Amino acid sequence: MEEVKKQLFIQAKSKNDYEDVADEIYCLRELKRNALVENAEREEKRQRIAELVGVSICTPHH
Fold it and tell me: How far, in Å, CA of 27 to CA of 45, rounded?
């Protein structure tokens, strides 16, 4: 992401068409956002599993 930002800055300074680089930045931002959401969902599931395992371990089996 930082490399793409550098490319955008260089192209903007040289007044080149930088629309492709800007599109790439938006795409990378969306990918990052999606990855963060997926990680949060996965962590939430892990915590729920840990809670359930903790409850089942503490509950006596008849």
Answer: 27
CA distance 50 to 56: 10
Give the sign of the dihedral formed by CA 24, CA 27, CA 33, CA 34: negative
What are 5's two structure tokens? 């930002």
Cα gap 45→40, rounded to integer Å? 9
pLDDT tens per residue, range 11-49: 777 666 667 777 888 999 999 999 999 999 999 999 999
First to last CA, the chain: 56
**pTM of the entire structure?**
0.57
Whether residue 1 contacts residue 25, with contact meaning beta carbons closer than 8 Å, is answered with: yes
Q: Where are the alpha helices (DSSP H) in the chain?
A: 2-13, 19-58
